[in-house]
Amino acid sequence: MSHTPIDQLQAIINRSWEQRSSGLPTETRSAVEEVLQLLTDGVLRSAAPTGDGKWVTHEWVKKAILLHFAQTSSRVMRAGELSFYDKVETRRDWEESGVRVVPPATVRHGAHVARGAILMPCYVNIGAFVGSGTMIDTWSTVGSCAQVGANCHISGGVGIGGVLEPLQASPVIIEDNCFIGARSEVAEGVFVGEGAVLAMGSYVSQSTKIYDAVNGGAITRGRIPPRAVVVPGALPSPDGTHSTYALIIKKYRDDRTDAKTALNDILR
Ligand SMILES: CC(C)(COP(=O)(O)OP(=O)(O)OC[C@H]1O[C@@H](n2cnc3c(N)ncnc32)[C@H](O)[C@@H]1OP(=O)(O)O)[C@@H](O)C(=O)NCCC(=O)NCCS
Fold it and tell me: For residue 35, what is the enclosing H or E element?
């Protein structure tokens, strides 16, 4: 690979970024590849310390990474002679699926992942359903039979509980357009209504009290209303001796929530 001076790379990337909606110039591809190689080699960083205790962010490097997604098609990648020992096949039929599967995402046979979904390195268990346009982010698990709708973001490290063990009556259901914040857990067949947002670190089972601070303090369990924005909190015991973990509906989704939870199209 040729070595283009960094300032020239930066100029090409910034130029390409400006022109991206009208087609990328031919110089973009090799510049992006060079940037990725420099990042790989640790020569370039997307943010770096300036030496005086501060950090500088190189926005153009992030643009280069996004341009890589814009100009690169997914392709089959093999990992040699990996073998497993199991009773359910691991799915490998991704070639025509329209699903982007980032290694080492694992999906068991019997789980459906709709065209347009993106699987970061995650685990999708048998019987689960993942809707179109949904991203299952890194180290998330979609438990057996859990149902995740279209255009959801299941953020990093989220656990969506399964129903096979222990045996629960109904699976977790996450309707379309939901955002489940990082490291949250949704278990025991909890229902999350369309467009609802769970702030990071929200834990919910059938026992968790859900306090609606918007609508007069109603307390429910097992069901997050559509478009609710839910955050972790606590409710006092009747005798005031202690508090118990609860989820609090702080508001219903608005433009600010949408802006914070929007999916980045270029990564898709
Ligand atoms: C829920 C979230 C999207 C914020 O939504 P928002 O609509 O912008 O919420 P606002 O900032 O308007 O806050 C509304 C209220 O909820 C509270 N709140 C918001 N997020 C909270 C959180 N994570 N924990 C506790 N309280 C929170 C605010 O303090 C505010 O309370 P107030 O009305 O008493 O002042 C954001 O907190 C969040 O969790 N982002 C997800 C981050 C993440 O997981 N990223 C993915 C990484 S892979």
Answer: helix 27-40
Return per-residue pLDDT of the chain as tens, 268 residues: 568 999 999 999 999 999 998 988 899 999 999 999 999 999 999 999 999 989 899 999 999 999 999 999 989 988 899 899 999 999 999 998 999 999 999 999 999 999 999 999 999 999 999 999 999 999 999 999 999 999 999 999 999 998 876 665 789 999 999 999 999 999 999 999 999 999 999 999 999 999 999 999 999 999 999 999 999 999 999 999 999 999 999 999 999 999 988 876 776 6
Residue 266 included in any domain: no
CA separation for the pair 189, 172 (Å, rounded):
4
Work out how many domains the chain is built from and give that number.
Answer: 2
Measuring from atom 30 of ligand 1, which residue has the nearest CA? 250
Do 67 and 139 fall within a single domain? no
- Report the alpha-carbon distance of residue 231 to residue 40 in Å, rounded: 37
Q: Which of 34, 175, 185, 188 is catalytic?
A: 185
CATH code (residue 24): 1.10.166.10
67: containing domain: 6-71
Assigned domain for 124 exists: yes
137 is catalytic: yes
Rounded Cα gap, residues 91 and 9, in angstroms: 40
